[in-house]
Amino acid sequence: MTRIAxxxxxxxxxxxxxxxxxxxxxxxxxxxxxDVAKGQAAAKxxxxxxxxxxxxxxxxxxxxxxxxxQAEIEVIFGRLDVLVNNAGVYLDEAVSIFDVSLEVWWLTxxxxxxxxxxxxxxxxxxxxxxxxxxxxxxxxxxxxxxxMDGYTAAYRISKLALNALTRIIASxxxxxxxxxxxxxxxxxxxxxxxxxxxxxxxxxxxxxxxLATLPDDGPTGSFFRDRQPIPW
Length: 232
Ligand SMILES: NC(=O)c1ccc[n+]([C@@H]2O[C@H](COP(=O)([O-])OP(=O)(O)OC[C@H]3O[C@@H](n4cnc5c(N)ncnc54)[C@H](OP(=O)(O)O)[C@@H]3O)[C@@H](O)[C@H]2O)c1
What we know:
single chain, alpha/beta, 8-stranded mixed sheet, 8 strands, about 15% strand, binds NADP nicotinamide-adenine-dinucleotide phosphate
């Protein structure tokens, strides 16, 4: 049986690489992007590598389109096995908490926290019915209380909230063979990470792929970087 995976914000960066790695593991990957043309081009590039990829438009802040996609996946595949909440924005780098605009506060929470919330609420009931699910919330060390510091508050708090979502859902859904974990990809050379970042998208996506394909006795409700647990 081919497992079905969905990755958000996957037209570039770490999400794109996660699609490649999951498809290389034999999964069918639904590559989603907020821009239709960018998603189709990204999926085409991966199909040309011989990978099993389809593309679908998805702006994670649009709850109606999340529910419409859930209904479509139910009809086409009958299930979703893997959900990677990767889409993210980083709009207040090094800005003081006193200077972040309200618009940036709202948009950051909308993409980085409400998006994953909508997707979890849409897809976890399908996973519970099938008795299998792997959810990876792509977080950041910036959202760790252990590493909490000044500046970049909207981003930090959005990832802190995402980590809480991981813990709360892990606690509420026991007994259905569903694993939900947060991970930090490290500082990765993407549009978000910038050219000085030491880590490649391939290395950044590795822990996503590992968590998305955990065995039934794998961990849940934890936070990882480089496949190792890190403090909340
Ligand atoms: N790079 C790092 O060093 C680093 C470090 C820690 C954590 N992370 C996390 O890793 C994840 C991926 O980051 P990245 O470095 O690959 O960033 P990236 O290259 O900037 O890619 C971000 C992706 O998210 C998409 N996106 C933004 N808003 C969206 C929305 N409303 N709906 C759907 N997709 C949306 C973007 O789409 P468009 O192309 O349309 O803009 C893009 O595909 C993020 O959650 C980020 O917070 C990254």
